[in-house]
Design brief:
The chain is of the alpha/beta class and 335 residues long. The chain is built from 15 helices and five strands. The structure holds adenosine-5'-triphosphate and magnesium ion.
Length: 335
């Protein structure tokens, strides 16, 4: 029996390079080896976008098209919508008894995200909602409702997976061994930095290069990217390791990046020329993705059918699993 892979993305914007190199490259490999459930996490997206349902709704289709355009095969991957699997919401309620508020407040990913979302949750997180604080619980429900054992993610997700494993262990110790502890799978690039040099490129951080960005947008973003501030003149030697342009060369211009590094250190490479070379490499890298995406944009009914079929399969898996879970919890009434 093949194991289940479960992973998810929040429909809060389009796919960016962080997703692609941090998580999606692994999806492409794993889709050939496992039963792959890919969740479009619309309920989780609402935790910090509760007042903007239009944004979440629109991005469900956007992100599904992005995922298809990078080469995920709908015959191998079940794309499903979190909100359409009520078992996930049920499990979230059951699990919420097994987690302390203090433990959630200590979760490093939650802490970082609360600090980044001062506009919604206040300067010191004083307006944090019950829903946002509890999203790791709902994420544990996502994974275990679909019997996910293998979870490909970027490294910002590791504290969330650790918390999920704790919930699984606690559940099994009380109600009996039924849930499997999920294992993460990390990509070679575990975390992609943002254009602003931030440790993480993120949709909510406004520092991303999106797979759908057009030539003009990419040119603007790369021309404004941060380089070594000590390099004043074109032929000053510089330190590529603190330069965001070199950083992205390493992702999309692998064959030439050694040369980029050498020339930069020797002072044989001006920043403008270096940025222009990166723009070209980026556009070449994105070209086949954009072509595939165009097909799906013109066949939106196909996209909807992929979501419908995937959700049906996910629902079947969750319903079957939930029967056994409720039995263990002694809430399997036959009234
Ligand atoms: P948001 O800001 O709305 O949370 P996000 O950019 O963090 O959006 P998610 O949908 O939360 O994207 O994450 C989807 C997956 O992509 C997760 O597995 C996450 O670890 C991974 N990921 C997101 N950003 C990066 C990044 N910069 N580097 C590596 N992996 C990333
Ligand atoms: Mg995120």
């Amino acid at each position: 029996m093949k194991k289940n892979v479960l992973t998810g993305l929040r429909p809060t914007g389009n796919l960016h390079l962080g997703h692609y190199f941090g998580a999606c490259q692994n999806y492409l490999k794993l889709q050939n080896e496992y039963n792959f459930f890919l969740e479009i996490a619309d309920v989780q997206a609402l935790t910090d976008n509760f007042n903007n349902p239009e944004k979440v709704r629109k991005n469900v289709y956007e992100i599904t098209m992005d995922l298809l355009s990078i080469g995920l095969d709908p015959n191998k991957v079940d794309f499903f919508l979190q909100s359409q699997i009520p078992e996930i919401a049920e499990l979230t309620v059951f699990y919420s008894n097994l987690v302390t508020v203090a433990r959630l407040e200590r979760n490093p990913t939650v802490k970082t995200e609360i600090a980044q979302k001062k506009d919604i949750f206040g300067n010191n997180g004083e307006s944090i909602t019950y829903g946002f604080l509890g999203y790791p619980v709902s994420q544990a429900a996502d994974i275990t409702a679909l019997r996910g054992e293998v979870v490909p993610v970027g490294d910002d997700q590791l504290p969330l997976l650790e918390q999920c494993r704790e919930i699984v262990r606690k559940f099994n110790s009380i109600y009996g061994e039924i849930l499997k502890e999920p294992q993460q799978v990390l990509s070679e690039t575990t975390r992609v930095k943002g254009l602003d040099g931030n440790d993480k490129m993120g949709k909510s951080l406004g520092n991303a290069i999106y797979l759908v960005d057009d030539e003009e947008t990419i040119t603007k973003k790369i021309m404004a990217a941060i380089t070594d501030p000590n390099k004043i003149k074109k032929d000053d030697p510089a330190n590529p390791h603190i330069c965001m342009v070199y950083y992205y060369h390493k992702l999309v211009n692998k064959e030439h990046c050694e040369n980029v590094c050498k020339e930069c250190k020797e002072g044989n490479r001006g920043c403008v020329a270096c940025k222009k070379e990166l723009i070209k490499a980026m556009l070449d890298f994105l070209q086949p993705i954009k072509e595939k995406r165009k097909y799906y944009e013109e066949h939106i009914d196909e996209v909807k059918k992929i979501l419908r079929d995937g959700t049906k399969n996910a629902k079947k898996e969750a319903t079957d699993n939930m029967k056994n879970i409720k039995q263990k919890m002694m809430i399997d009434y036959d009234l």
